[in-house]
Design goal:
Length: 213
């Protein structure tokens, strides 16, 4: 190790730092996992490859050569925080419903949802024969412009079903006009422009791990 013969039982080496060789051949350690946060714009699909040849979120990660994949999905017309990683174990834990990792969305919906509608969304609606988990829902300002007013809703979900926010709002009669995910677990989009990405810090990765324990 590092040019010296190791004859001590239990000697330790640091991957990526120490030069470890056996019969003069270097021992390669496992590649270090990559953790990336992307502020996804509309018009990109959340997948590695698309049969319809639409642009994928990987097209935005210029210079990234690691084999990474999205953690969950954001649909084609949804913007916001998307995680991508090569750490399959953490990805599985983050997306498993039993860990209830919070996802926060800001939706602009058609009309003005009243208190009854907000309560229905909080308690859950039936999608494909199964009720959604209880959610946090707060009503923001209403904009009266044009023929139909629009209202901002902030929804906190603890599961990741397909197109869930859009389907929930459509079912109560207030279709989504625009949708953005602004938080995933302990992560927020603060300071990250639309279309930009960055690597997570070790502290941010550890906080995500802690949220699944």
């Amino acid at each position: 190790m590092n040019g010296r013969v190791v004859d001590t039982l239990g000697a330790k080496a640091t991957p990526g730092v120490d030069d470890v060789r056996v019969d003069d051949r270097r021992v390669k350690g496992a590649p270090q996992a990559r953790y990336i946060m992307l502020n996804k714009p509309r018009g990109f699909v959340t997948t590695r490859h698309d049969p319809q040849r639409r642009r994928t979120v990987l097209d935005l990660l210029v210079g990234v050569r690691d084999y990474i994949y999205p953690v969950g999905r954001l649909d084609y017309d949804t913007e916001g925080l998307l995680l991508l990683t090569s750490d399959g174990d953490l990805a599985a834990r983050l997306t498993h419903p039993r860990h209830e990792v919070p996802r926060v969305y800001e939706a602009i919906v058609t009309g003005v949802p009243d208190d009854e509608v907000i309560d229905i969304l909080r308690r859950g609606v039936y999608l494909e024969g199964r009720r959604t988990q209880e959610a946090g829902v707060t009503r923001g300002p209403t904009v009266y412009a044009g023929r139909t007013p629009t209202t901002k809703l902030v929804l906190t979900l603890f599961e990741g079903r397909n197109r869930q926010v859009r389907e929930m709002c459509a079912q109560v009669g207030h279709p989504v006009r625009s949708l953005q995910r602004v938080r995933y677990g302990s992560l927020t989009l603060r300071g990250l422009p639309l279309g930009a990405w960055r690597d997570l810090s070790p502290a941010e990765v550890e906080a995500l791990r802690a949220s699944t324990r």
